[in-house]
Amino acid sequence: MKDVIDVMELQREKGQRVPSIDYRALEFADGFTAARFTFECGIKLGAQPLTIATAAVLLHRFFKEVDSSNYDCFLIAASTIYLAGKVKDDPLKIRDVINVAHNTLHRGSGPLELGDEYWNMRDAIVQAELLIMRVLKFEVSITHPHKYMLHYLRSVEGWLGPEEWRKAPIARTAAAFLQDFHHDSAVLDYSPQHVAIACISLALQCYGVRLPLTEDSEDAAPWYTVFTKDLQKDKHWEIMEKMMEVYNREPEC
């Protein structure tokens, strides 16, 4: 069927890029494992980046309110993906969500037949979606750092000039940091503007890019003060450290 995602083909493509992870063998890890599962499923489903980020935020917010041991984190993850598609007007077919989630948990498995297992999982996702909405008090609208980061990056590009801007992939690296930070529930602890600035700062530091007319002295105003006045240097470093800690939590395959 052409209108159903070929999970086997997705699995073959995924296997060529990175080693497969057995999510069932991993600990909950404060939501990191479920968020990693969410991102893998979202990418396989062809969801928009903001849709996947929304799903990750909904996932973290849900588990912040409940005892994670009482819930199947992978079912909740699948449900947040389905819900995020509705929130961001990026509709995902529930059958595709079911098949991709099932295949990601059970590597090598084919699409589920329209039998008891399929209908049970479908009902579970729908019921979990309603549960998530109730737990979050139907507050599923999210202000993401992405739009702020795009605005800030355009300014940074203008400051550096076209030639210097092309020397290092600052925008792509900052976007990667932002995506990866959504694996950690700490993304909920900071304002979207501050997260966006921290992603850009980390990308600039990775490539040793220095912005014009900036100084390293303690008294000098940081480059980002033109965008926000309430981000202190200590808080700025704290966010960047949290981002770097995410990479220490990567499971060994």
Topology:
Elements (H helix, E strand, L loop, with lengths): L6 H11 L14 H13 L4 H17 L7 H15 L6 H12 L10 H20 L10 H15 L1 H4 L4 H12 L10 H15 L26 H14 L7
Helix pairs in contact: 2-3, 2-4, 2-5, 3-4, 4-5, 4-6, 7-9, 7-10, 9-10, 10-11
Which keywords apply here?
253 residues; 11 helices; mainly alpha; disordered N terminus
How would you describe this protein?
The chain has 253 residues and is mainly α. Helices cover 58% and strands 0% of the residues. The protein is built from 11 helices and no strands. α7 crosses α10 and α9 crosses α10. The longest helix has 20 residues. The N terminus is likely disordered.
Count the E strands: 0
Approximately how much beta-strand content do the residues carry? under 5%
List low-confidence stretches: 1-8
Largest sheet: none
Q: Give the overall average pLDDT.
A: 87
Number of helices, counting only DSSP H or I runs of 4 residues or more:
11
| Helix-strand pattern | HHHHHHHHHHH
First-residue to last-residue Cα separation: 33 Å
Q: Quaternary state, please?
A: single chain
The portion of residues assigned to helices is 55-70%
How many whole angstroms does the radius of gyration measure?
Answer: 20 Å
- Sum up the overall morphology in one term: elongated
Derived from helix and strand composition plus strand pairing, the structural class reads: mainly alpha
